[in-house]
Prior knowledge:
Elements: H1 8-18, H2 30-44, E1 58-64, E2 68-78, E3 81-90, E4 97-103, H3 120-127, H4 132-138, E5 142-146, H5 168-176, H6 181-197, E6 202-212, H7 214-225, E7 229-235, H8 265-268, E8 276-282, H9 290-306, E9 313-318, H10 326-336
Parallel strand pairs: 4-5, 4-6, 6-7, 7-8, 8-9
Antiparallel strand pairs: 1-2, 2-3, 3-5
Helix pairs in contact: 6-7
Amino acid sequence: MKQRFFAPSQYHLHLMATTEREFAWTGQDFPGWQKGLRARLRELIGGLPDRKVPLNVEEIEREETDEYVRLKIVFSAEECADVPAHLVVPKGVERPMPAMICLQGHTPGMHVSIGQAQDDRERDLIAGDRDFAVQAMRHGFVALAVEQRCFGERAEKLQEKRWEHPCLDAVFHSLMLGRTVLGERIWDVMCAIDLLQEQPEVDPDRIACMGNSGGGTVTFYAACLDPRIKLAVPSCSFCAYADSSMKIVHCGDCYIPGILRVAEMGEVAGLIAPRKLLVVAGEEDDISPVGGVRAAFETARGIFAAAGCEDAIRLIVGPEGHRFYAELAWPQIMEMVH
């Protein structure tokens, strides 16, 4: 009897394996390849706004300790899209300081980044080294913890009926409009960089971005598109599409329409060169399997080498699962940001 195929995944995996990628890396002219791929990535995420709106920064609250000053602020990214954030400035550090944009993934919100736990689950998240803004501040960075669309204070509350998963309403709506939630989150990061560049404490040439899981995904693609990010630290999110997005359950906010006709993730990483990329992974991560991480990293390292900056890309693999590894990562971050 002839073999028959009924599962949709069988067809999609076949298509993935047989489709020629437009910007597959074959050692071609690097500057031209990078310019073309960056333009295609920008197109695939639904484009970015043609103009910026005023940031309209508003201070909501202020906390001052012997260690830092923390401002809770709100700024505008687009019309009808405002961004709450915590700006944490350490005391006793020589200015200007490096800055770190801190992005939570699918957590209850940005308050996890500043170490504020409201229940046992959030305490577990912080125990997994997700208090990024606290870590950054203690290493001498100005930290900006951004509330990402669909999480925390930006969760969907307007619709009476909505998906249980916090991102899916926005994912489907953005697709109907020819956009992506990923692209919208990248734009928020770009506006956050505008805000940081206005702070007298910040060295505009040392702006970095970090995040775990969904926050790592935004970190990675924002760095691919915005050259002002000098160091990207995506955690538990960098992995070959073939080993992760195409085989494992992910939220729709991590997908880019048409990306596999253009490039694999290791090739997309070439958009960050010659700037710096520190990939953090977990040996037991079941969402971004370490085999796919290593495969994508080897591709990316080859591209960085061709661009003359092989030392600008590094990989850290922690011993556990889907979490950040602060003890391993921060010594590398401190080396790479200077």
